[in-house]
Write a structure and sequence with these properties.
Layout lengths: L3 H14 L9 H9 L7 H9 L7 H9 L16 H8 L6 H17 L4 H13 L3 H19 L11 E2 L3 H10 L4 E7 L3 E6 L9 E5 L1 H10 L17
Parallel strand pairs: 1-4
Antiparallel strand pairs: 2-3, 3-4
């Protein structure tokens, strides 16, 4: 049951986006919108709406909230909360006591304070809330997770480089594939800014290739952490969409 609810949630997410053609984001426009205090998408306003349990945010709001995070001062796609490992150690058991579920809730919330769009930690938090009978909170966070996933899948099909999904963290690539019921088989970075992940096939005509555009989270990481520039030098200096 742990995995059934997330898979159903993503199925609903994909159903919602089916009524709207995937649209490659204009990241320069998003940058201008989320940094302009007079814009309805000004980032502090968006985050305030998200944090006050706003359930009326649209797909356009969530696209700016998710993708616009790369332009925030505290953005780091490789940030690892010290609490994240504690949650994982607790979570991967067949059953949990109430005390353990409360501990998962506590550590997941602390982890999200460090990294607000850690999709895996949101998933853990939803699980803990359901185990504790806090269904209203679980539903609220499920709504948030659904719409963050919807923001990703609205950026393309993921089936080739031209229609690659835009993500703000490499962790989100594997989380999304997992929610699609896919098992990652291999990873390859492709010039100039694409992460290519192959998955185990489900049938002879099944697509096994998925592409993610990592341009903007790598670019912002290099700007904020120039001491790590050598790790991303060379082919990643090339231009990309």
């Amino acid at each position: 049951m742990k995995r059934l609810l997330p898979l159903l949630a993503l199925s609903l997410c994909l159903l919602l986006t089916a009524f709207r053609e995937p649209e490659k984001p204009n990241m320069e426009q998003i940058r201008e919108e989320v940094t302009n205090p007079s814009s309805p998408y000004y980032y502090p306003k968006l985050m305030e709406r998200y944090e006050r349990q706003e359930t009326l945010m649209t797909l356009d709001d969530y696209r700016r909230l998710y993708l616009g995070y790369v332009f925030q001062e505290d953005f780091n796609p490789y940030r690892m909360s010290p609490y994240a490992g504690e949650v994982e150690n607790l979570y991967y058991k067949s059953k949990h006591s109430k005390l353990e579920s409360r501990k998962i809730e506590e550590k997941a919330r602390l982890s999200l304070n460090d990294d607000p769009f850690n999709l895996q930690q949101i998933d853990y938090l939803i699980y803990a809330y359901r185990e504790l009978g806090k269904n209203n909170l679980a539903n609220l966070w499920q709504f948030r997770l659904n719409h963050l996933l919807e923001a990703i899948v609205s950026t393309g099909t993921g089936l080739d480089r031209e229609h690659a999904w835009y993500v703000i963290s490499p962790q989100h690539e594997y989380f999304l594939l997992n929610r699609l019921g896919r098992v990652a088989k291999s990873f390859e970075f492709e010039v100039p800014w694409f992460d290519h992940i192959t998955v185990e096939p489900k049938g002879p005509k099944d697509s096994v290739n998925y592409y993610f555009n990592s341009h903007h989270f790598l670019e912002q990481y290099r700007l904020k952490f120039p001491e790590d520039d050598e790790e991303f030098s060379g082919p990643r200096d090339s231009e990309a969409d």
